[in-house]
Structure formats: structure tokens, C-alpha cells
Protein 1
Amino acid sequence: MLFFKNHIQRETFYRMSLLIFIGLFFLIFISLIPSFLTPILLSIISTYLLLPLVNFLERNKIPRSLGVLMIYLLIFYLLFYALQNFYFKFVNQFEGLQKDIPNIVQIQLNNLQNFENKYFNDYPFIKNFELVSRVKEFFIKFSDKAILNTPKWISNIFTLFIFIPFFTFFFLKDSRAIKKWILNLLPNKYFESGLQVIYDVNKNMSNYIQGRLWEAFIVGVLTYLGFLIIDLKYALLLAIIAAVLNLVPYIGPIVAAIPALLISFYYSDSVWLVFFTLLIYLIAQLFDSVILIPLIFSKIVNIHPAMVIVLVIIGGHVLGVLGMIFAVPLYSVIKAISDAVFVRIVAK
Amino acid sequence: MKELYTNFFSKKETEQGLIKEALKNNILFKDLNSRQINIIEKIVHVRKYSAGEYIFKQDKPGAGLFIIVKGKIIIQKETINIDDLNEKESLENSIITTLNENDFFGEIALVESNSYRSASAKAILSSLLIGFFKPDLLDIMNTHPVIGMKILYRMSQVLSKRLIETNLGK
């Protein structure tokens, strides 16, 4: 090997090129079938979430299919219960917010206009930015898009509600058969390594997904409690947004804070409400990063924060919000595969 | 018509029967009843190897044991010979043992963490093997603890027998 000064350089080169090769393969694969992928990815999440329960029932001598059915019945009951109790609250908050948004936007626009007028004399170049008209344009475009896309979203959500339980059922019931089927496709030479890789990836993914969902849930509950204490409007809706967006690393929590801050700004008589809202977000994020993340993810491989941001951006480009959520676990899968390929096949 | 039947259905059935029989005869699964054997059968992996094919190679990571249903396997160790006169290194394969139907090998990898194969296994006839691996054992221990315990008890018997043999060998 003339290119490399020593075997360590050669090894690093092989490792990097394997990682890039497998990563590109996944990227191309995902970008080819994004519409089909969403229900499958969401089913995988729910499978990992429910798998410990199915295993628990199997341990207590309840066959897998019956166990899955029992869990489904329980979930439907809980959903029904939640709908009865929270649906109207949620819908009320959502509708209220829908009515309030134009007012909130208008007030912010007025503020912006005042700001522009105030500083126009001193700094004439501000006029060139046309801040007010630009922001107005953005909101009009955004709301047009939202209204136009609503039927599409509803039909998408409806398809997801049919497909996710369907796929999840079979993933849960036949997870062993699916694993065996994949392994049967492997040639003898790679069989044992493949088995180990599938096991490692499976374990990491299940730890990661369960960890992230618990983290999101706890952050959501914390935020909700905080908002109840300071009596912020739309507490439940904002807490749900905070929980869901918490799944997107780094960027999500910041985006989640924006609507809450706008609302607190609009409804408050003093600056204190805005301050407390911000404080609650900060406390929730601090709790998340100081207590939850070390507690939940101590076993999972550390990825450099800069790498995480790059991954989230790539994920967002390829698959939207879902891609942002899945970028990190998918990267760890790709890394696990390329590491295993290196250790078991390339090395020696 | 009869031939067609044997080709399409019977062949698979006999293979399945052979696998069940091999599992029943193996010491690790000796304490299991037929219902429990059925559960194990759903978890284990059945692999076919042609004559001359390696099952695993020395110094590669290992994940579990293989049971021979049909065929013949040799276990061989590669050693490096250093020829002082010519200053050359050569590899020599020495056969440790030959294994037949119902024998099993590679069981250390089932319980050892980060296990590496101490010797290579190679099929000398076309062979049908059952693979039972660490993830499968962990799965069984998690979902069927009683079966897991029975297997682990037999496993420790096998290992202690090996230990006594090695000590006597000294």
C-alpha cells in the first residue's frame, strides 16, 4: 500500500470509506421511497415501544399474537379515554389559537412597524430591509400553504392510522420470523457476523427509541406543569408541541419555545410572563440535558454535537421532520453496520 | 404423482423431523418437553454447508454453537511454523478432531463475552447444521425463563465436563 504511511492510516481510510459508502447507500434508498417509508418508520418506532410489553406477556405464558391483541385493546381503550377527556380541551385550545394567531401576528407586525418608524430617522438603511412587508408576505404564504395542504395532511394521517397498527401488529408478532428470514438471505460466510450485527443494531435502536420517547414525555409533562403554575394559555397544546419537537436534537427545543414566547408576549400585561415562560423552557431543557440524557443514554454511543447538527440538517432535507428525528438513530445503525463489516470482514 | 409429492412436501417434512430429532438428542435441550422443543425450533437457525466450506475461521469473532444434523465436520487449528534455516514462516493446519451427526461445537462462544474462535471448523461432507447463538439464548432467557434455565444448567454441565477433561489432560 503506497498511499498510506502506516497501517493505522490505512485502517482509518477503510473505516471512513465504508461509513461513507454505506451511508450513501441508505440515503439513496431512503430518498427513493419516502412516501412508503413514513408508515414503516413510525411502525418501527411503535414496535420498539411495545416490544418489552409483548415479551413481558410471553414470559407470563401468554402467546405472542394474543399478547399483541391484548395490548392493542388496552391502547384503544386508553386512546378512547384520552379522547373523551382531553380531546375537547385540545380542540378548544387549537381553535382558540387559530382565532388568536392573526391578532398575535398583527400586534407583532405593529411592534415591528413602530420599531421601523422609530429608528428610521437615525438609521435610514433600515427602510431598505422592508421588514414589515417581508414578514407579512411570509405569514400570508405560510397560512395559504397550511390551508391548502390541510386536506392532504388529513388523508395522510388517516392512511397512517390504518397502516401503522397493521405493520406494527406483524412486526410485533413475527419479529423472530422476520429476523430469521433476513439471516437466511445471508451467505454462510457472513451469517454469524450478520447475526451479531442485527442483534447489536436491534438493541441500540430499541434503547435509543425508548429513551428518546421517555425523554420527550418527561419534558412535555414538566413543561405542562410549569405552564399550569404560571397559568399560561394553551398550556396543553404548547406542552405537546414541546414534547414532540424535543425529539429533534438541539433545533427542536428552540423552535418549540417560539410559539410559547409569542403567546406569553401577547397575553401578558408585564414582561414577567415572558420571562417565566422562557425560564420554564430553560429548566425543562436543563433537566433534560443534565439528568435525563446522562441517565437514559449513558450506554449509547456518543456522537459529536456538530455531527448531530449536520445529521439533523441532512435528515431534514431528505425526509422532513421525520428525517430530523431519525437522523441520529439511522446514523448509529449505519455506523454499527460499517464497524461490524470492518471488524469481521475487512480486518485480517 | 407420488414423486411429485415427495419432491414438494415430504422433503421439507423429513428435514424438519431431522432437526427436531437432533434438538431432542442434544444434551443442552435434553430436559425440554416437546412443546418447549417446538419453541426452540422456531428460534434456531438451519444452515447448509457444502463439502470444503468453512463454518467459521480461527481468530474470527464467534456468536454461538452449531449442532450437526447431517454430515461431517473437522475442527482444525492453524499454527505458524518458523523455519530457522530458511527464515521462512509457514502455516500448518492440524486437525484436532472430526465430528459426526449429533455432535456439537463452538459452545464456548455461547456464554463468553467478545468471544473469538480458537480453531476453524470446516465441512468435509455436505452438511446440515443447526446454529444456536448468544442473542437466541438471551431471547429465550427473556421470554421463556424456565427453558433458559434448563439450557443453562445443561450448558454448565458441559463446561464443567470440559474443565475436568482439561485438568486430567495435564
Note: The CA atoms of residues 146 and 170 of chain B lie 37 Å apart.
Protein 2
Amino acid sequence: MRPGPPKFAETAVGFLIPPACREEVLGDLHERYTGLGQYIVDAMRSVPLVILSRIRRTTDAQVFLLEALVLYLSFLSAAWYFNFKFLADQWGLLRLAIPAAVALVAVMLADAYTHPSTRSPLKAIRGATLAIGVACLSQAVLPVGNPDWAVPRSTMLGGCYTGLLLILSVRMLFSPPAHRPQSANGLGFGQKQDGKAVNIWSRTVAVILCAAMLVLIPAFGIEPGFIAFTLLGVYQLGKRF
Amino acid sequence: MAKPDSLGQFEQLVLTAILTLREDAYGVTIHAKVAELANPKPISLGAIYVTLDRLEDKGLVSSWLSEPTSERGGRAKRCYRLEAVGERALEESAVTAKRIWDGIVEVWGKEWAKQWGKRWGKELG
């Protein structure tokens, strides 16, 4: 029997590869295996390109720009409404771009790492909650390192709510390429994946639960860390359905 | 039939590899074949995946997952085959390459072409 890579190395590499191409890439790396060093070098040279290729396939440039605009405008309008003086600060407009950029990267990676076989109406909600959750997490962590770059809490909260609603609307109107049904002469990629049956009842309960959790957030606190925790919890819950 | 896009050099190499490998065209074998065709230029496996994805999006190749095999740790291969549009695009590229060759031979002479022929013969054994 041919020697294969150690389990831990395969698990670590498999974790980094988007699920849509995990099977074949891990198989190819396994087949080329001659030693642990070679396996790691091979993985380090292949996996970043695989991720970039997957991002290219799952990101629609126009929708991406629209999402960027919507996110930035959400935080800008929140700052305008709650902390107008903040906008006049040096680097104020740039600081607002930090949570927006973090959310944008999160939503892009969420699309790239979505398994094409899971057909769920919660996909749009999951991506949006993950994006805003990670943006909140970045703002909860940022004051520890450099408080000068953090956005005021009220601006963050207002921006998160507006951003969540708007990004959700954008993603429902223009679903990411990986979530769209493919035409007969189109890419045909989504059609090749094995689809699982959609359980409408469990999904409906999940949607109601997610919505209830989002509405209840302000009742329990407005700490960015708490919001991040809640939104990431919603994301994990959404993955189960 | 839709007019195929013009191909880049690396895309031509990948399509040629898929054409020559026939039923056995998947990541590892395509990479080995492209490395052989592009010799002495080093080729990374990641570049092959990126190009295969792009060619599939353009509709030049199609892919499917084979049965899992033990030498791959129980994992399936993603096999590729040329679509009609891909074959046409490769054909056009080959015709263009032939025209380039003829143009060069016309200027640099048949002696130069013979020397290249001998070098290729030696390389191919």
C-alpha cells in the first residue's frame, strides 16, 4: 500500500480548501505525496490559488461592488446620525471603512466556502450574518490592540443593523453565482453537484429563530463582542439547516 | 455554434494535455503532461487548477467526479474532457501556431527549421 500523508496534515490542508473542490484537490495531493515536506510545500503552492480561483468563481464583481458600497454607506449613515463629529476626525472616514472591509472579506470567503450541494434558503442570511458578525468581532478586538482605530459603539451598532438589512436585501435580490441555478448552456457547475432535499419546515423554524435572535440583540446588550457572538451563533445555527 | 475565445499559451498547453490524455485527464496527470510540454519552465499544480476552472467557465472543457480510489486515500478524481468549442479553439490555436512557424521559416530559412527539427528529435528520443 502506498504511504499517504499524516492525518493531521491532511485535515489541516482540507480545512483550508473550499468544500466545492476539497475532494479532488486532497486526492491529487495524496497521490503526489512522497514525504511530509513535499506535501506541505505542494499544499502551500496549490491551496492559495485554489482559494483564489474559487473566489473568482463565486464572486460577481458588480454585486461585490454593490455590497461594498452598501456596507460603507451603512456605517457612514450611522456615523452621520449618531456621531457627526466623528466624521470630522482625522482618518474618520477611513476608520469607517475598517468594519465595512472586514465584512466584505467575510462575505466573499463565506461564498467561496459554501458547499454547492447544500441548497438552503438560509444561504443569503448566513452570509450576511457572518459578514456583520465578523465586522463586530473586529471592532471588539480592535480596541485591545489600537483603540484609536475603533469606531464608536453607537455608530458600530447602527451601521451593523443597517448593513445587515441592506446586505441581506442585496443578496436576496442578486444571489451569489454559486447559489444560482445554472442554465443548460451556462457554467453547468451548480447542476453537477448532488443536491439534498430541502426541508421547508425546519428551515422556516430556523428563519424565525434567526430573526428572533437578531431582534432580541439590543434587549441584551450592545457590546460589539456580544453582537459578534450572537451573529456568529446565528451563522452556525443556519449551517445546520 | 458560439465562436470560441482566443486562448492564452498556458490554456493551449492545458487543452493539449487534456486532448492527449483522453479518458485519464485529471489534476495530477494534466499537471505532469503540461510540465512535460512546458519544459524547462516549472509549472505549479495550483496554476493548473486555476486554468481548468477558467476553461470550464468558458465552456471549453467539462468535468465530472470519478469513483474514489485507494491510491488517492479513498478520494475521487475530477476528470476533464474537451468540449466541441474547446476542440475548435485548440484547432484555431494550432493553425495560428503553424502560420507563425511558416512565417519564421520563410525569414530564417529551412536550415534553421532543420536544426530545430533535430533538436526536437533528440529531446523526444
Note: The CA atoms of residues 115 and 121 of chain B lie 10 Å apart.
